């Protein structure tokens, strides 16, 4: 493909035809526009007049230009121009397409896939074997035909980490064995360790060409809670012009639906790499946030997960009665205040007032006895998952709490009095702390030298004591004990919460111990040291796009690794859990800087935005057609055949042509038909029957409803219009108060959508009269084909329990007083919605106070439509019975129809006891 | 085809064209009769005009004894239209008259020939009602009176002439009669001049009416055009019709000038009518022009 000025031509020789354009210009110039013939009697006067201006027989220059342009467009169009032609990078032999495959490329991953596809296509054309590799998934390159790789493009996904050293080593080893090849390296634009080594190795193997997007990679550092606000820091790899990014705080709303809870806008200043914004949210909302992400960035780096550091625990601090005012440093709660204030919400007050607020932790500092109500409430709260943290003190030591029997709210039994060591009145030195045992939650914390204990309460040796000790003094006496209670736990520090008995509250260890106990939460990402000795289990892990998935059976991770180790296939970003604590490992840490990748000067770097090949031939030919169309108009105008209205008409015609090509008109007729049907159905009361597909049955149903309509019109104030046939699949049912549904044995079962609408119709007060027309529903249909079909038809319908129509059903008296409901067949049962079980007949009343509303279905088999049916002139269509008795039966059928429609229209009006006297009167009782 | 049948078919076709033309002509003439002319003549009768006292020089035979016997004065009974005038018409039936410029055809704007025939026939109706004798120039239809003559005129008016520009028929003109020539006068002026001088020689005076299509007056053409006469005998090609407009208009004005000069010289009257205008005003003008000639 020849490339001229960025546009490739598949048939460049055709462009030589452009040379003929000047000739064409001269030819066209010489040909005047065709004359128009006109009849004109006045021609006699024109004879002998000659044209003054002899130049006008030439075509005007602009028309010439138009035509020449059209021809030029045709020539260029036929020459097969292609915009963004995939240039042949040349080269022979194997080609390695190497992707970084890190999270940094996830946002524009599809472009990279397109690029790989384009490279594959080109290599396929050049018949080069190809291997596609990701640095984040190193393997030995296997050079295959390009087609073999094409189907695997979709399987290339970005990893949520940068290539680790181990991966790069693996890759280098694999490359060493692969012979010579050219490389196209599709870089994500972010630097990482070892990239230079790979570059060197690849350059040694053959040509290296790098494709890299010019736009900056964005990342989001973990949120920091500072001064009541969440501070979010967005970073970018390349300093550029000022830019706003929107950071979304996502989480679950109270209904449990994931949604954006809040947004914040961070602004990169011109030339700045970092943008900071603060998000101030109420604690409730803050606790629900699960992740922050940069809008319109789809990468793991632009997503940061939240963990306990944003979940501020509520800690209720309760101390004993203050003896003296103003001695702050002696207050049992002072050091707890200091330790917890940065990381927890502190509640203070009376215990019973605080418990309903459901704090996460209740701290009792040197409180010995609790009232009955308090201890019960506290025990219930602990068993529900609360954590009770107790500190010893003079009162506890002096009390009898948990002396003989273990108090439920104490982890151990205590010996009377406690002990004091290293004091003025005692022997020995103050005791230091023993190293924490491996099973202790404090395992891994380093113990400062200067932590000493002067006094403590002593635990009674018990069989369970060893299990409950989680920290002890150097001499083995328990310092901190813990026991599970229900879902919660009770922890006792055997020293005071102030510095009276020990220096523990003065040390950093105290804070760390509280963190480990999940009393407080770290305000900063924990360091490796903080996590020493812990094992963390992945709960959810993030992929390169920033999407979370369940961790499944991934192995646990050591605490220091979680904090410090670089991310890799063994350590994916995500949520990790240990005990009660949750930690989020994010791609970016607070310190991570996004360094743009830089390349040696001899490596050619191309932009990623190689547009797709775009053939321009069609466009140019269309342009030529348009120009020729314009030429038609212009020529007409020039030769005087296009004036005024005709010009407008011609222009309009061309416009209309264009519009009609682009516009699709559809569905107009359908809408009109629907509206007509709706108008017909709503202008008057319309009785409707379901179209069964059997024309005979449908006609009879129609005639039956017409007959019923006539009867209603003669006898009542209900004046229905022409009955309507309803197609359950397409027609709107809501317009019809009642559907008559004749059941045939071979009726098609309506679709699920039709049933959905039928159910909606029934629920909104519609009534369906099922008529099996075979006088056989008493045994409930199992015996007749129509009955079986009815069962199948009605199965998906939302129908309440049914019963044979009771003698006091409101249908028996809505207009006529009836006890039989014959159609063409008589004396068979009719089924309606059953009466509520609590309906009782009041003494002296003939009727029970039955269900409200209209029964949603009436099921019978008396072929009522057959009895109602009349032809156009009002004569009955079908015979009913014989002689006078038959006519009587038809009359009763009509009366049933009247009652039915009245029931549909008036509901349970006649069920009202107000009518009882009149009804009794009519009944002659 | 059997000649008789063919004849009959043709005649019926022709006859079917007659009644509309006649009817329209009668209708048009009726509007004039309802005007001031009609009132002037109402109740006067065709013959009697007035009694006037006998004067010296009046023949005794002219004295009306019935009136004179009522008194001492002798009266002469004067009659109007004592000698019916002969009015000879020539309506150009040439192909050039069968032209209308309207794109919608005859419905939008009548052909010139249609308008000329209408005006001619309407004038004839009026004149015949006035008791004149009306006929065509030439020998085909000598002037006669009576309604049958209107029918005959109408019949003659349905005959088209194949010639592109028909020369005025000037044969067999009755001396001292009146004449009415309706044409577009776009053809050879020599013929017109000949006819008029011949008429003037015989003491025939009359009216020339030039019936023109609006397009012939305006010349609204542009671009490269080949103009053809209706019969196709003459054609003229131009590359820029718009440029010819002014010169065409000059020529037309020149033609009109010449016609009116000719008319002045021969005692005729000259008028121009455009098919775009109302036929009634043209008829009024025609009638007055003819009337003016008689009184």
Automatic annotation (TrEMBL), chain A:
SUPFAM superfamilies: Class I glutamine amidotransferase-like. The chain crosses the membrane at residues 12-31, 61-83. Residues 687-905 form the DUF4159 domain. CDD domains: A4_beta-galactosidase_middle_domain. The keyword Transmembrane applies. The keyword Transmembrane helix applies. Keywords: Membrane, Transmembrane, Transmembrane helix. Coiled coil: none annotated. Residues 7-81 form the Aerotolerance regulator N-terminal domain. This is LytTR family transcriptional regulator. It comes from Marinibacterium profundimaris. The lineage of its organism: Bacteria, Pseudomonadati, Pseudomonadota, Alphaproteobacteria, Rhodobacterales.
UniProtKB/TrEMBL annotation, chain B:
InterPro entries: DUF58. Residues 50-255 form the DUF58 domain. It comes from the Bacteria. It holds the Pfam family DUF58. This is Membrane protein. It comes from Marinibacterium profundimaris.
